[in-house]
Amino acid sequence: MAEAIDLYRQSVIGVALIETLDEMVASGALSPDLAMAVVMQFDKSICHALDKHVESRATFMGGNLRTYRYCDSIWTLNLRNTTFMNEEIETVLPMVKIVAYDMRMIEEPVEPITCQQCQ
């Protein structure tokens, strides 16, 4: 089963981090063990940041559900012409892909971290 944190590695920032680390390992500037430690820290940090520091919530309505899939406790929804709203804006997006994971299904919980803002 795919780990929930793997979803964050597939984000734009996660892909950029992994590509940069791969280049550094290939050039000999970084050891593979250290690169893996950086990725593990990224996993912990992104989970912490989303849990503790993101306060904005968005809701969506309308639109067309084009496809949906449920596999290994992961929901994937593909929507078209969907209205998203938060406290500040309301916008219609032509195409949206939502990936939702049930965090209760994680086999090994991510070790909590604290940051300077949380202390």
Automatic annotation (TrEMBL):
InterPro entries: TFIIA_a-hlx, TFIIA_b-brl, TFIIA_gsu, TFIIA_gsu_C, TFIIA_gsu_N. GO terms for cellular component: transcription factor TFIIA complex. It comes from the Eukaryota. Residues 5-50 form the Transcription initiation factor IIA gamma subunit N-terminal domain. It is found in: Nucleus. One of its GO terms (biological process) is transcription initiation at RNA polymerase II promoter. Gene3D superfamilies: Transcription factor IIA (TFIIA), beta-barrel domain, Transcription factor IIA gamma subunit, alpha-helical domain. The keyword Signal does not apply. TFIIA is a component of the transcription machinery of RNA polymerase II and plays an important role in transcriptional activation. This is Transcription initiation factor IIA subunit 2. It comes from Aegilops tauschii subsp. strangulata. The lineage of its organism: Eukaryota, Viridiplantae, Streptophyta, Embryophyta, Tracheophyta.
